[in-house]
Amino acid sequence: MKTSLNKWLMLAVLLMSSLSMYAQFNIIPLPVSIKENGASFTINGQTKIYYDKGLKQQADLLYAALSPATGYDFVVSDQKKAAKNIIVLKISKGGTPIGKTDALNKESYKLSVKNDVITIEGNSAVGVFYGTQTLLQMLPAEIYNKQLQRKGVWKIKGAEIADAPSYEWRGMMLDVARYFFGKDYVLKFIDMMAMYKMNVLHFHLVDDSGWRLEIKKYPKLTSVGAWRGEGTERTGGYYTQEDIKEIVAYATARGVDVIPEIELPAHALASVVAYPDLCCTGEQYTVPTQHSISKEIYCVGKESTFDFLADVFKETFALFPSKYIHIGGDEAQYDRWKTCPHCQKRKKELGVKTEKEMQVYFNQRIQKMVKAYNKTIVGWDEIIEDGLKEKAVGMIWADSKKAFKASEAGHYSVMALTGHCYFDVAESNIPGEVKAATWLQPISLEKVYQLNPMIEGLDAKYRPQILGAEATLWSDQFIHGTILQEIAAINENRSEKYFEYLTFPRMSALAEVCWTPREKQSWPDFEKRIRTHYKRYDNAGFGYRVPLPKLIGSEKTANGFTIKLEKDIEGAEIRYTTDGSRATVYSPVYIQSVTVPKLSDFSAITVVNRNQYSLPLYFPEKYDKFKKYGQLVAEWKPSSVKGKDFGTFEINATGKINENGEYALSFWYTEGHSRLEIKSVELYKNGVKIAEDVHDGYTGTSQENNEYKFKVDAYETGAAFTMKAVVRGDVDNDSNGAVFIKKQ
Q1: Which of 207, 261, 470, 730 is catalytic?
Q2: Which of 39, 42, 69, 144 is the most exposed place for a label (fewest CB within 10 A)?
Q3: Which one is catalytic: 202, 204, 243, 267?
Q4: Catalytic annotation, pick one of 60, 311, 331, 573
Q5: What pTM, to 2 d.p., does this model score?
């Protein structure tokens, strides 16, 4: 037993030392193998870039990456004329850098950094490109800057790296349908992906609120369907076919496969607005200015619907060389099909019993249609629930176990799970966090890193059918009420920065999840390496979320609490306060541990510069998040007011009502499942009722009509104010709540 324990400890020490060595390079995603060789290569004005036949584009991209910051005009040539101070790009002549499947092996590379020569060898041009991206991460962060840097030495530590991805699908979905992002930003987004060897751009071009792809046979798709609103509120845009060609070429050079999404049969209102005959009613609708899921979907009963889609696909496939086409396939409402004579005739002809079966028919026809172009359909996991004749790719978003059904049916899966991959959700619920989707819990950087595309319980034989993972950046928040309406184009690129805030650093974590072997993944090690990447984001001009100071400990002492912090960004500083106020960029700099009488006195932020800093690290008091509802006046538990009949719950408001005016009393649930029902609240001054508000309200797992209002006209100094609430609590005692009062 002792021998086994010693062996385990030795393995643990070896693993930790290995991870420590990797961290010295701070490469993300972590390569399969890194070995230091004691050498060192320095890039200077005489460094030359040589390339094998077929690698000119990769050589030019490397030149474009190295030249601006260094200021060097490198010689780039396919004729090797020097033996020293050279960077050589080459295609492997035999063997495989890393033993992988054909698809993954194509992306593999070897990188050798010696004193006089850097060699990047790949099994394909894509593999060579990935090798150059690793090389850039081995240089100082300033290499990403497009302006000449004064840094004098561009040194790279010697190493032998052999690398290949674990999964062939490493994706990001960019939603340009609900909010239009111009061509230049799409190119920038591709750069963001390429930096971390992400290789699939899922291009969400079509939705109810916008059609973004020029189809020349149907010009109204963009002249009408790409725009919403009227007058000064009119917004939108689309990509011309020339734009798409440029985007695809740009992406292809960087190893990124652009997969277009043409939604069907639902999420198609923008096309229906342009061509009303595509839907069942034929009525004229408008492109929505607020987010919703339209019940207007393509008519499955009209042959003209399929003629239209065949024409759209013909032009789409001429622009996108990807072997995949995403069809969406989710959230179809069948109300129109149920009453449409064309659809019901089709239903009878097919001999099916439900409208859902007609969607399967719809998908099967589309699958046959695109197969003629050698395309494979991709859709949200709904498309694989009822079976397809040909293999398809199910994007698993809600229930990871749907991958079991997909695999058993012979389909492929890409994990886009809501709990790990929906980047339109904020990273935290800290006050001041960016306004984002709230139907899911926050998805932290660590939560992204915890994703395992090969879900637990899936038979190992299905591993080849799990293609990888993908994060989604939905933009429906831009048309959700007025949440992001204030983000307008005023030469600040605020909308783009908003998306980048949601993307980085989480995309870096997803990249490692998809690339690095599972057994080599380590959150503590990744956490150390990512600290050096924020400076790279800065130099590259990428926005990001600044992480909070890391809390190492808050030890209870005789004098209060001793708080220890650590920076999560290399080169940043921590600033803090100890008086209960929130820290600012002008607060004192944190040097060492700080002791405060109570935790709520302390606050700290990470400061990159005066304009870039984190949300506050602080220790909220029990009811901190309810401060906007006023002062705490009472606490409740269902058990204290339980019973079959309503009873009186008395609240002392003396001191809280301190002048004439209007007041609002609100009841809030804080935890548990039981609720408090409220019938009325009466206000008394010195025992005499002076006001009341009578209406049914309740608070529990939700709250409704839980606010009661009063007007005080005859305030007297020293008067006693009490409130009597007529309430009833559930029998269970697992809940807590509080009551707050606020002067309006």
Answers
A1: 207
A2: 42
A3: 267
A4: 331
A5: 0.86
